[in-house]
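Entry:
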Amino acid sequence: MKLAPECALNWDGAAVASLLFAIPMAIVITSLTVFLYRKSVEKAMRYSAGIVVPASMRASSAAISSTALRISLSRDAVGSVPAQLTQSRAAMRTVSGVYVLAGVAQSAVITALYLWRNDIDFRPMRTFFVWVPYAWPIILALSLTATSTKRQKLTLVAAYFMVLVLMDAAADLFGLRYRPGFGELLLFW
């Protein structure tokens, strides 16, 4: 396979160093981090239980219940939601908002760099059409912080891809492309 001249791959020292040193080092550091994190969580869980349980004493697989945990809300006499639950919901909305703002900023920076590095004019519709595919971290953050059921997560992801499809159709319908081609926005994603 012969590549175009501008697509030539140079296997210089940086690429070889990345393959030989950085990737194995990242694997080792990640494994160590996960190990230390698990130990820290285990220690915190034991401390919060009020007793220090030796690591050798663990529950056997026979003691673990196979039934799903069911949580039910008990409302007080007035019928209102408990204050702790209200505070928890408000905190999660704040966390979701912060992550959405971070995702907006991240995708705006990537969009600006993409348009600038490829010498493409900054026009409102073009910028928005490039920004939306780069906004997928917002969907990831919302699925982790603002949804609680699998159905909500799937609905959020489906809505995101539906927006991409509708934007792609609108680009063809209103002639916003140089040449027609449905599905290019999904391919760009």
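The mean pLDDT is 79.
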